[in-house]
Amino acid sequence: xxxxxxxxxxxxxxxxxxxxxxxxxxxxxxxxxxxxxxxxxxxxxxxxxxxxxxxxxxxxxxxxxxxxxxxxxxxxxxxxxxxxxxxxxxxxxxxxxxxxxxxxxxxxxxxxxxxxxxxxxxxxxxxxxxxxxxxxxxxxxxxxxxxxxxxxxxxxxxxxxxxxxxxxxxxxxxxxxxxxxxxxxxxxxxxxxxxxxxxxxxxxxxxxxxxxxxxxxxxxxxxxxxxxxxxxxxxxxxxxxxxxxxxxxxxxxxxxxxxxxxxxxxxxxxxxxxxxxxxxxxxxxxxxxxxxxxxxxxxxxxxxxxxxxxxxxxxxxxxxxxxxxxxxxxxxxxxxxxxxxxxxxxxxxxxxxxxxxxxxxxxxxxxxxxxxxxxxxxxxxxxxxxxxxxxxxxxxxxxxxxxxxxxxxxxxxx
Length: 414
Description:
Radius of gyration: 22 Å
Function: May play a key role in the regulation of the intracellular concentration of adenosylhomocysteine.
Number of domains: 2
Keywords: Cytoplasm, Hydrolase, NAD, One-carbon metabolism
Pathway: Amino-acid biosynthesis; L-homocysteine biosynthesis; L-homocysteine from S-adenosyl-L-homocysteine: step 1/1
Cofactor: NAD(+)
Number of helices: 18
Strand order of the largest sheet: 9-8-7-10-11-14-13-12
Subcellular location: Cytoplasm
CATH superfamily of the largest domain: Adenosylhomocysteinase-like
């Protein structure tokens, strides 16, 4: 076993965090207990690039207890919880992750879990692992049974790979499961993004004009929670259907050009590059705060902000003040990276319970279907989605109705 973490002496603290998470992740823990005796992943090597949090720990520990040898790297240079990484290393997970990695260290860790891990299955969050395997380890890609993808950005990249005919193994888009995006993207990111902003700034949201760029499931969740905290929410969009939905949900919708002039707080959630650009920054009021909730640090043009500022200083942890030539101050949170994972702890355990249950069952499905699936991007099978929902309801003590035979016949008849 190998590892590289910030400080292995933090392991005891990390174990307590993991215990807390697992107490709130009954579906993942239940699946672990179900599959542990059969060792469903016995002899399989799994390499994963995920945010190294207490919730991720619940997933990778479950895979290990069910027989897998797990290799783990962080999917963001600033999102690793160092005490959790130390606890995992002490438990026999091959983990290479620490908070504050340089770009070079970030890519080193990913290559480390590929080369050392020699995986049969891969788990990714953002697509960097899949892309690196295909670009730099093509022979390995040909022998991989399959993989999963956790987030919207990664699914977009994988579908582009499939379209270009370069994808070499089947990938299940866990992000597209109903029990993932309806809850993780909306309620998880909605709450944790607000948590990150408040931990970083301690501002009052009530009365502020908050601009949310993007009205996908992540944007919906953020807008909903900001409104719940009393903010006056503006949505910017490029998709007319989503813009129309935002209007009917009661939000003001306008172009970023116009929103830039009135916003107090800006949150990007699009998965696209340079949503907030130089021309927008130049129109912002003194004290405007910029935060990003998209996977990569490309949504805010940080380079342009650096170029137009005459000074920069770290005014609070994860808050950088940029002074413009006319004296206006713009505040960037978390260096433009995922604010919920850099300045806070990421999604609550309860919502990651469903996301990681999908990961667990999707990997099991890939093993069961080994050699049968073409190298394409697949949806999570409906039976897995429904099983996760059913197990979550049971854990919450909620019972639902079932169809009578008469109702089944009626629905199946024309």
